[in-house]
Predict the 3D structure of the following.
Amino acid sequence: DLVVDFLDSESIKVLDITGGAPEMNPYFCDLVVGARELGVEVIDRCNLTILQEEGYEYLAEFLAVNKVRVVASLPCYLEDNVDKQRGSGVYASSVEAIRKLNGFGYGKDGSSLILDLVYNPIGPSLPPPQNELEVIYKRELGSKLNIHFNRLLAMANLPVGRFGSVLQSKGQFHDYVRLLKKSYRSENLQSVMCRSLISVDWQGFVSVSYTHLTLP
């Protein structure tokens, strides 16, 4: 309720919902409906497999009816790579979830229902050029599996949390931070998310955190 009131009072244009599987929050649907009634664009950061879980079979249709933009993680177009990163069977479940979304019009030419996929590298490396990788994704997923999406978003991994811990344990943390620093491009500063986005946690509190990465 606080978030919806804030969207209204501050004329917020976009609500971006994330957090593992945000659809599991019991108030997810209420939040989506409340935002859409205000004319706010809603983005659901979806892990896809939730659409296949018992008790959540309604989700794909719910997202379509409310014209929610779906941004879904699919870290590779190859089954072995996805299952290695996310767990056995995740790729197959994700493909079936995309088919379900496609069935409601997501990712189809001429449809207003947007489905974007997200790629991120498995290890301490940077993603390849986004546009080139999108062509490969669309070719592999479209021709071999007949599933469709709008755009591919290529993301670099932030060296914090579980990924940061893995880098530390393998002695790769500082090398990866150097790679990020070496790849810095000043033209990206105008579009970094923190310039136009605030984070609100699951309890309704504005969350502000700063991560300092120091090199030896």
About this structure: The first helix runs from residue 2 to 9.
